[in-house]
Specification:
This protein has a five-stranded parallel sheet with strand order 4-7-10-3-11. A hairpin with a 5-residue loop joins strand 1 and strand 2. It folds into two domains: about 210 residues, Rossmann fold; about 130 residues. The model has no long low-confidence stretch (mean pLDDT about 90). It is globular, with a radius of gyration of 23 Å. The protein is α/β, with parallel strands linked by helices.
Length: about 350
Amino acid sequence: MSEMLRMPAEQAHAAELAALAAGDVGRRPAGWALSPQAVVTYLMGGKAADGAVISPKYVGDKRLIETAVATLATDRALLLLGVPGTAKSWVSEHLAAAITGDSTMVIQCTSGTDENQVRYGWNYAQLLAHGPSREALVPTPLLRAMERGKLCRFEELTRMGSDVQDTLITVLSEKMMPIPELNDTVYAARGFNVIATANNRDKGVNELSSALKRRFNVVVLPLPDNAQQEVAIIVKRVGEMAQSLDLPEPKNVAEEVARVVAIFRELRAGSTEDGKVALKVPSGGLSTAEAIGVMVGGISQATFFNDGRLTPETLASNMIGAVVKDPVQDRAVLGEYLETVLKKRRGFEGYYASLTEML
């Protein structure tokens, strides 16, 4: 087992990428490690030319992935848009791993991200000693990606201030970055492009300017279509995460995932599955990602404190943490759901008892 808590996608799935590359006879755009068809196979799952099984990385509409891959084969940047928990970052990482073999050139956008973190910075010791020079310049992931012909990933682009966002316009339209301090310009090598992720539901979102939006092709990643698809996604990701954390996976994971998903989907939708009972909606998103977090937390608690048995009791505290973001409003929402819906539902008695006790 690796000593790394989490390996980059290109290392975790190195065998699959190598198998696809070995039998890949498709046309490859400049700088790509795989053909677009092989990249889609890597994301959606299938078989390599030698029969090696390629595990699916994304469960959803294949056409969305094909559109994303086709976009990156042009000179337009890609914006993956969706509510929290729709696997935007996951897809972004695996696209970069499959296309250029390097998913680590990432800029995490926050309200504190400034132009120096996007364009370039300076080693001030070198700058004071010798003045502006390439040796004193500290390249950002974006600048390194331009020089090497790689993909640069911008996570949560809309969390970055609008004025800083617009520093990307020159890079995306002209494929170059001026360095006026050196009277120099860096031109992007073939293969360079940008993948950005964004959502418009979280607080603190800065809308993209129309000029910047025009530089992106937008692919909207939806929430899973139905409960069965969402359960399949969560079971797969929970299994992978449990393995990476060296946690034994209980046999009843799929059944408990189905119950947690049923609760989350109803609270998220504001009505029961049959549509007969209207419900208040909690302030949090209750996304697929949060359901994965609940399950992994429950498995950890079961492993260390419940003899490996995954029960509603081991999941309840994690579920409350996911639902109750506002201690007053969300507590009332969950309490009403427990009394009007879950109390009468067969098979959920353990969840009703555990959540009621902890609430």
